[in-house]
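Board notes (copied after class):
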Amino acid sequence: QTYSASEIGERLGISGNKVGRLTKAHNLKTDEYGIWVLDQSAHSSKQVTYFESVVPVLKALIPTAL
């Protein structure tokens, strides 16, 4: 199962934007942690969806990122 950045952020108490910035800054936008999917967003034609495996990694990063 995959989750959007907003869904992951909601679980961790941060914004979806913060999830995206953390995953980009720490090179977590990989096949191990998520996949690119096509999206019909007004601003972009693609979106990253994340796997459950990224949650513990982000939890470990949050105290240092805030």
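Comment from the instructor: The chain is about 45% helix and 20% strand. The radius of gyration is 11 Å.
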